[in-house]
Design a protein that fits this description.
Length: 387
């Protein structure tokens, strides 16, 4: 279709709606919309100095003229909406574009004072560019892995290097920087396990070779720090790798084992510190599946409850139950609700809604499972039990 150089204005559309069907194919399809003359007047006026726009003294006639101008601005604003409706009926402006235009005008004048602010009507192309820019303002959130320090440890047989890994969430302020320690053999095990499932995806990933001698020298430790940091930076962008259980367990499994062992031994203070760190890590690693945080949150709840910190236990439990609202058959859901009802009663909080959830799901769970529903603590102490 050949584009006609004439720009179709909203004013023309409002005045001649009956002729639009004949001329829409000729004028509208490509050319779009232009800026209203009234708007250009407002913009020019807004660019003038304050003294030229608002005189110090005003005569009664000036006041009458100002009042009349305000009324004209009010009607002009209403005309914009009428003209938009005309465009919508004629399929010139899609409903989504019309809504976006309305929001833009609201943002230009949030106080609702239409007479004191200038307004403009964007073309369809300008709207597209505007919303594209708005969407691109948010920086993508990703993880940054840094190995900042090391220490030499030893067991009964040999000495080895522990690498301190700091996990930082980029794209926003991360006030929960956490670090873990892993040795070279842990990295090697991770790489070997990942290759079993993602050999093709990781064919270009370079893993630092193992050294039989000289691996405790300062120069070699420094080189390996950089190599292992680069390795994590290479595998994290691979989507299937970063969402795999093997990748996630590399960062949290030793700490989980330690935390559950402390709970079984009654060391709730140590367990609480460990699970708090694990939860910080999981918030960064399992955004694709937040329900993976539920067992850790429930373990932290048990620590607070058994240390007579009922208020903290209740708050942690409510975070966990929110993650399970769409997963009511989850094995932790019913025991968690029972525990929260008890905590709500103890702390004087409303528990009617929690009890209703239990009644709704109780029969469904009993039809699904033939065994007695365990308590929350029974579930927690059974986690990571080595047989």
């Amino acid at each position: 279709m050949q584009c006609v150089p004439r720009i179709l204005r909203l004013k023309d559309l409002a005045n001649e709606p009956e002729n639009m069907n004949e001329r829409s194919q000729e004028n509208v399809g490509i050319c779009g919309l232009s800026t209203l003359p009234e708007v250009e007047h407002f913009e020019k006026e807004a660019s003038l100095p304050d003294k030229s726009r608002r005189p110090q003294s005003r005569s009664p006639s000036d006041m009458r003229d100002s009042s009349r101008d305000n009324m004209n601005a009010e009607s002009s604003w209403e005309d914009i909406h009428k003209k938009l409706n005309v465009l919508k009926k004629l399929n010139v402006l899609r409903p989504t574009e019309m809504e976006q235009t309305r929001k833009i005008h609201q943002n230009d004048n949030p106080s609702g004072d239409r007479s004191t602010r200038h307004h403009h009507l964007m073309t369809t192309r300008e709207l597209q560019l505007y919303w594209k820019e708005e969407k691109s303002k948010g920086k993508p959130v990703k993880l940054l892995f840094q190995i900042q320090s090391t220490r030499i440890a030893e067991d009964f047989l040999s000495k080895f290097v522990m690498y301190q890994i700091v996990i930082i969430k980029t794209g926003s302020f991360d006030g929960k920087k956490v670090f873990i320690e892993r040795r070279y053999s842990d990295f090697e095990r991770l790489h070997r396990n990942l290759l079993k499932d993602f050999k093709e995806e990781m064919e270009d990933v370079v893993f630092p070779k193992k050294l039989l001698m000289g691996n405790l020298s300062e120069e070699m430790i420094r080189k390996r720090m950089m190599a292992l940091q680069d390795y994590l930076g290479e595998i994290y962008p691979i989507r299937c790798v970063r969402k795999s259980q093997k990748f996630i367990k590399f960062f949290i499994e030793p700490e989980l084992e330690e935390g559950y062992c402390c709970i079984r031994g009654g060391q709730y203070g140590a367990a609480m510190r460990t699970f708090q760190q694990v939860i910080y890590l999981q918030e960064k690693l399992v955004e694709h599946c937040p329900t993976l945080m539920v067992p850790s949150l429930c373990a932290l709840l048990i620590c607070h409850r058994d240390m007579n910190e009922s208020q903290m236990a209740y708050e942690v439990g409510m975070k966990a139950v929110e993650l399970l609202e769409k997963h009511t058959t989850h094995r932790y859901y019913m025991p968690l609700l029972d525990t929260l009802i008890s905590l709500a009663f103890k702390t004087g909080k409303e528990y009617t809604a929690l009890r209703e959830k239990v009644q709704i799901n109780e029969m469904k769970v009993r039809r699904t499972f033939d065994y007695e529903i365990p308590t929350l603590k029974e579930l927690v102490v059974q986690e990571y039990v080595k047989h």
